Amino acid sequence: MSDTRSDHAGHRRRLRERFLASGGKGMPDYELLELVLMGAIARRDVKAIAKRLLKVFGSYEGVLTAPPERLRGVEGVGESAAAMLKVIEAAAVRLARARVLGRPLISNWQALLEYCQAAMAHAAREQFRVLFLDRKNVLIADEVQQEGTVDHTPVYPREVIKRALELQASAIILVHNHPSGDPTPSRADIEMTREIAEAGQKLGIALHDHVVIGRGGHASFKSLGLL
Questions:
Q1: Which residues of the chain have a pLDDT value below 70?
Q2: Quick check: is 55 in a domain?
Q3: Which residue from 59, 109, 157, 169 puts its CA 20 to 30 A from 9's CA?
Q4: Exposed (0-12), middle (13-18) or buried (19+): which is 19, by Cβ within 10 Å?
Q5: Model pLDDT, residue 82
């Protein structure tokens, strides 16, 4: 037993040293997951658990974005390990958000897309998010206005514009996700976007874009010529 514990301790130490030396570059996904699991599971080999998680969820991203109850359904993953994995996801979303808050979004478009992808791409339900901008296109507020079902979110154009007026926003960007994974805008998406654009135009609030987020990418109404 003592030899086994010594082997585990040595493996963990070497893994941490490799990570600190490389910043994780070149390390396979299962080793990065091992490092996360090591913080929640003591005195146990976690390599098998890491590989099991990747097999079940398909990728490192798939593991981190999986619901806690599904994570706990994997052999070897208890409440502490599931919580640790979700903390890593939350940290990634918060870091991505910090890169867009208080900055001009038009010149930081890629950072915005990365934030929206991290925050919404793997959500089980549709979310409708509005980004409110000032006259310099700096992000002043980021709010989820509605959350719906797996394929529909009720959106009320008047409420969106009312909130923009409350925040004294000069422009908005709409973002919502498609849990199906396909970011192609639906007919309902197009009609709702046009209603918001028309309502905002009457009150001097510009609609810069509407971005649909899917697991495999995104669709921009502006790029598609829909705005």
A1: 1-8, 148-154
A2: yes
A3: 59
A4: middle
A5: 94
Residues 129 and 73 in one domain: no
In which residue are the tokens 């959350």 written? Answer: 147
Task: Give the total number of structural domains in the chain.
Answer: 2
pTM over 0.85: no
> Alpha-carbon distance 75 to 17, whole Å?
28
